[in-house]
Amino acid sequence: MTKIQSSAFLGDLLMKVKARDPQEAEFHQSIAEVFSSILPVLEVHSEYVSSGILERLVEPERVLMFRVPWVDDAGHVQVNRGYRIEMNSAVGPYKGGLRFHPSVSIGILKFLAFEQVFKNALTTLQMGGGKGGADFDPKGKTDGEVMRFCQSFMTELARHIGPNTDIPGGDIGVGGREIGYLFGQYRRIRNQFNGVLTGKALNWGGSLLRPEATGYGCVYFAREMLAAHSDQLDGKTCLVSGSGNVAQYTLEKLVHLGAKPVTVSDSQGFIYDADGIDQEKIEWIMELKNNRRARISQYVEKFPKAEYVAADPRLPYNPLWSIRADCAFPCATQNEIAAEDATQLIENGIVLVCEGSNMPTTPDAVRIIIEASVLYGPAKAANAGGVATSGLEMAQNRLGLSWARSDIDAQLQAVMKSIHETCYFTAERYGSPNNLLAGANIAAFVRVADAMLDQGVI
Ligand code: NDP
Ligand code: 2IT
Q1: Is 72 found in the same domain as 28?
Q2: How far is the CA of 357 from the centre of ligand 1 (A)?
């Protein structure tokens, strides 16, 4: 196929997807991003088009949607909506997180599941892609309410998942506490103790380093990006957004490697600590967010030299990204770096943007960053350390063993280095040197598409 034919084909397919489900904007965005990279592949592999690989990739294998009724502490019946998108199982059983957040919808989960298919392929482990969750807001809920919600959610989900079928893990709003309640209910209903969920606690089948893995992996990926240009993290000032699981361990590994993170945030505002966020301050953030389930504004109660800036939803940009720094690590949510933010980062001399959160950068912002030759680490590569370590947790569960922290850290570093090399050399081979986004999309697409070709029209 010529470039023009491939481009027309992909444009037409995206139009059809949009017409079929017009309200799924984030899903369309994630498809458009992958399609923008794979033209050079279709030019030489027309079999992907003639076998309907693209049409099949954008249609989930299965979409589950279910009622989640539960009783709050006041005795009122609440009803949420639960989902699991089983997107693609060509390279392994469905694998991907659960998100509990009021913004959860089919469109958000289809984007996350679509991303997950490619991310998991980059790890080279046997994991297909899925994602699930609910429009439940854990904020302000008691432990008892969260437990009853999780039990009701799992009562339905249990019939669809299994250690060789679909293995959910954590994401926004789903951490160790939620995985515990979900696992307990699964075990009770199915009368099986197995590796059906990842992110478990250590004394009942969890893996060392899984909580740290996404953040640590993201920083290891940034280290590889800089090393490819004879640069390093030591001494770099860094912007980090979010203050949850991914942000916390991104901060910690940055400090280990001699960098100086100066910001953290939550949905209500951000902290700017010009002196740098060191280990003692990270521990306070963990106490605030993980134990007290408090707001990040309380950072300044203990460290009053830092500044708290409340979020202003009327602004088309986020002032966190206008602080002068060398590197940026978005670790909160999707579309958190807009075009205005990207322009501001570049004016301030940013050298690297490395994505801890999924699809944090809008398409215009990605274009601006890449055109300015700023090093850009796309989420599906840069944050793959989390799911890769979930893959290691699954392997340990199958063997009935627990590996040492040092072994897992070595494997995590190796996987991030290998994903970086794959993206770097694939980009070069397909005519987009230094474009890790193109490299990630192409390498992941080829792995999944080849598996689908081998297995026939499924
Ligand atoms: P957490 O729930 O632990 O933390 C989420 C953080 O992001 C909180 O600080 C939260 O603030 C903030 N946030 C969430 N939604 C919004 C929003 N709409 N606007 C502004 N801030 C928001 O989640 P994780 O740290 O696990 O996840 C963060 C990102 O990383 C997500 O994009 C997730 O998909 C991605 N990711 C997670 C992995 C994992 O292993 N956990 C693996 C790979 C990617 P607040 O408390 O105010 O809501
Ligand atoms: O986006 C992600 O890769 C995750 N939320 C981790 C999923 C998992 O199953 O560990």
Answers
A1: no
A2: 7
pLDDT band at 1 (very low <50, low <70, confident <90, very high): confident
Provide the β-strand partners of residue 132: 84, 98
Range of the domain at 349: 213-377
Which residue has its alpha carbon closest to ligand 2 atom 10? 387
Indicate whether 229 and 359 sit together in one domain: yes
β-bridge mates for residue 85, sequence order: 63, 131
Phi and psi at 281, nearest 5°, equal -70, -35
How far does residue 145's CA lie from ligand 1's centre (Å)?
A: 21
Q: 355: CA distance to ligand 1 center in Å?
A: 12
Handedness of CA 431, 437, 442, 443 (dihedral sign): positive
- Structure token digits, residue 322: 């206008």
User: Which tokens belong to 314?
Assistant: 């009327």
For residues 262 and 328, is the Cβ–Cβ distance under 8 A?
A: no
Q: Tell me, what CATH number does 19's domain have?
A: 1.10.285.10
Rounded average pLDDT over 112-132: 99
Percent share of the chain, pLDDT over 70: 100
* Measured CA distances, 263 to 63, 325, 353, 412 (Å): 38, 10, 15, 25
Question: At 312, is the secondary structure helix, strand, or coil?
Answer: coil
Question: Token pair for residue 378?
Answer: 């796309």
Query: Which residues sit opposite 327 in a β-bridge?
Result: 238, 352
Handedness of CA 170, 449, 21, 153 (dihedral sign): negative
- The candidate with the shortest Cα–Cα distance to 33, out of 451, 370, 422, 316, is 370
208 in a structural domain: no
Together in a domain, 119 and 187: yes
For residues 89 and 128, give the distance between their C-alpha atoms in angstroms, rounded to a whole number: 4
Q: CATH number for the domain including 315?
A: 3.40.50.720
Q: Are residues 27 and 127 in the same domain?
A: no
Domain-embedded: residue 324: yes
Tell the residue nearest (CA) to atom 4 of ligand 2.
97
Q: Which ligand is nearest to the CA of 199?
A: 2
Same domain, 250 and 368: yes
Q: Are 412 and 406 in contact (CB under 8 A)?
A: no
The DSSP secondary-structure symbol of 404 reads -
- Determine if the pTM surpasses 0.85: yes
Count of domains observed in the chain: 3
Pair (16, 139) in one structural domain: no
The domain spanning residue 170 has which CATH number?
Answer: 3.40.50.10860
